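#struct-queue
[09:14] JT: dropping the first one here, sequence first, then the structure tokens:
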Amino acid sequence: MKFSIFMMPLHYPTENPSLAFDRDIALIEYADELGYDEFFIGEHHSGGWETMPAPEMALAKASARAYRIRLGTSVISVPFHHPFHVAERMAFLDHLTRGRAILGVGPCALVTDKNLFGLATEKLYPMMAESVDIIVRLLESSEAIDYDGQFWKIRQMRLQLRSYQQPRMLLAIASSGNPISLELAGKYGMLFLSPAGKNKRNNQSKAEQWNAVETIAAKHGTQTSRDNWRIATCVYLAESREDAWRDVEANIDRDKEYFFSIGLKAPYEAYPGQPAHEITARSGADRRDWIIGTPEDAIVQIERMQGETGGFGGLMLATHEWAATDKLRRSYELFARYVMPHFRGHTEGYRDEWRRIQQSMNDGGIRRDSNPLHNK
């Protein structure tokens, strides 16, 4: 199972942005040290809270000190860019990272960014589909290509530097179940990044969405598997559940104001149209399937999510600065020390050995070994 960190990033608007950027990039190095598999950063241009306009630039800087972890965009809002520029810049990043880059794309979910670029919501998904088609062709083709679409038209364009990964770099798409996103995920064997939550999105369960991706992949003759499926949720761990909630509850309430103001209230609702004053930090965390508690709580909750979905290939931990930096780092450390090895099977032998010794003690003690070297 893969474990990733997903950073919007999200910072309170009164904070020094330069210091926040330094702290964000330092977290990538820390995640690399702790053994996380992937780190994703999103693209945003407005709203005041989500602060990085060019995630590939931050990832390039981080790659100089984070040597192992894969580095992805989650997401580049491709309708805002010429597809050639997206393909070329990400191919360049793939070389700078020696094949660790992941190009994550989306149509844009931030309403203020849509307004900034003057793009109607109904155009964003078709624009994204055309852009992804062009990007894939550019990454895969050694020859110049033509494309005559509704939104993008190119003539005899080629990348002089294709991606380090061959036949092309890994692609990802973030989606709550829009049919165009499902089609792209299946057609191109992309990583499928789904938000956690107990509320249905696009009238489909998460399992139904993944089943659709598999069906589409089979139609196109594309290889995919549940290993390509990531579930994204917020995680905060401490030594006790009470400590965890004490650390984060006030700032979850603070962040709600931002998310509700940009039209993302529905995932928090226990029923459609639930009044905002009824939604608390704890009720919202429950509806969104956030993990707040101890490492043991995290293991139980992830196992439940795996059972409900039929299994997924990775968990993405969304970063929110709900607590002081040292406490946030401690949370990531607790997850890496106790949760990740549980799902990777790395502690299975140790746990089985300890259970065997405990059982032997209950049965009357451990028998002394006949080898005298073992009895010293």
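[09:21] JT: and here's the second one, same format:
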Amino acid sequence: MRKVLVGLFGSHLDPTVIHCDNQSCIKLLVNLVFHDISKHIDIQYHHIRDCVQQKIMLLQYIATEDQDADILTKALTRSKFEYHRDRIGVKYNPYLVEREC
């Protein structure tokens, strides 16, 4: 996506911030010392490590409770669903709930 935006507009982009709730993943991608232990890791993770080293991407820790992507990937309780729904800006529409097919 970054290459498309740079190609279209030709401007410099700030580093992309990736919010991650896995602290060991962040440490593995930021620190090159773990290279010997991580040789079996898939090539896509080495690409992300390269992007972090080149300052194209920044990894930022976010608590698991605040991970808004969970609304799209996990079954949540009603209260957690409403909490994340409100955080991402989706509004409750009672007309969609009442409508029958």
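[09:30] RK: nice, looked through the second one.
[09:31] RK: Residues 82 and 92 are 9 Å apart (CA to CA).
[09:31] JT: good to know. The two ends are 37 Å apart (CA to CA).
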